[in-house]
Amino acid sequence: MAKKKSLFKKLRKNESSLVAEPEAPVDEALLDAITQPKVEEVVKPAIVRKPYIAPPKTYPAKVDVQVNKTDLFGALNKAKQAAIEDSGKSEYVGEFYSVDSDEERIATYLFQAKLPGYVGWMWAVTVAKIDDQSEATICDVVLLPGNKALLAPNWVPYSQRIQPGDLGIGDVVPTEADDERLTQTYAALPGEEELDNTQIFEFGLTRARVISIIGRDLASKRWYDGDRGPRAPIAQAAPKPCSSCGFFIPIAGSLGGAFGVCSNAISPEDARVVSFDHGCGAHSEALIKAE
Fold this sequence. Notes:
By secondary structure, the protein is α+β, with helices and mostly antiparallel strands. It is built from 6 helices and 9 strands.
């Protein structure tokens, strides 16, 4: 079976060799500001929490019936009384709305619900008759949403609502046992990594689970398409890519072929993961040539 490979293992071989050169005589004050920057004055960008994007809202099915005021079983008063008893207060049951019957011996009486928070809902009282001569019997009393009912969307699990920046000091976010981003250590080595003995130790045999191919691909795509990938505005305006910068430290493991960590204190990417083809104006070889 062919081995699975992670995304972004191939690097762009062509690198820009642009060097920043002045087109006019260099201002001495400007030259001092560029060649001797004051580290203490650098303000690192604040981590901005991305707004939560809720999934499409889904709602319970609404009741849409044709209005029929005919009292089929002569049980209108009995049905309304059953709704009042179930609600606890007579003011919670409004006017008779309609009656619906799909079977010969069963009918459902609908009344406007006046419960707080249940705008557009209806009391549904189901009654039944054994035969034409018998008296109607109450079968069930429930609340149903009408076609203009005010509904809350379905509940979204917390694991789908958590965003970067939500986790604070002392907070604990449990990981699901079947999280596809992780796999057992022994299962990750044979088919997903080609490692020597040293790398096997570094890869984490002491850990119960390690990142899976799916987890690595998700991380790679998130990093590469994010603010520290090649399409970020700061990278587009950079004189050279990070892969040729002296402050670039490649990371180990399967993602080391496409990502590293910036170690330049004056760079806005300092201590952050960046792609090989990312870049910024603090490149180590972006020098001003002396005349």
